[in-house]
Amino acid sequence: MTVSPYRIDLAGRSVVVVGGDGPALGHIAELLAAGAKVTVVGENVVATVEDLAERGLLRWKQHTYSVGDLDYMWLAVAATSNPALNASIALEAEARRILTVRVDTPGSDGASKDRLKTVGKVTPVAGGPGYPRLHPTPRTAAHSRAARADERG
Predict the structure, then answer these.
(1) pLDDT score, position 23
(2) How far apart are CA 50 and CA 146, in angstroms?
(3) Helix (H, G, I), strand (E, B) or coil at 127
């Protein structure tokens, strides 16, 4: 099973990325690495996207986004530089029950340091309950006794 940075098995699943410039490139790379069948929708894309399409590593629909570009997709990534268009894509995806990632919303590209926000005395650093790195290291009874002894002095 190949798991994407979104923690979803995307191997063999159809995914659309709307937009083909800077903000989209990282998502495209991650989706391809996860084994997704990537379609990029965008009139103007960077040379990297053109090259990937020419090599058959993704499909490129060279036009502006239109209703219907989400047909048969499992995940949509709204990665344009136009927040209104990203919102429109997200609304269509939601209406069709298609998972959506927007690059113009906080946290859309992971927990990047510049997007962490301190709330009171708490700074979120990763996932929530159940996040594997937040679980304490298992300790034996001997470790627990030693820790209590250290606390008592």
Answers:
(1) 81
(2) 61
(3) coil
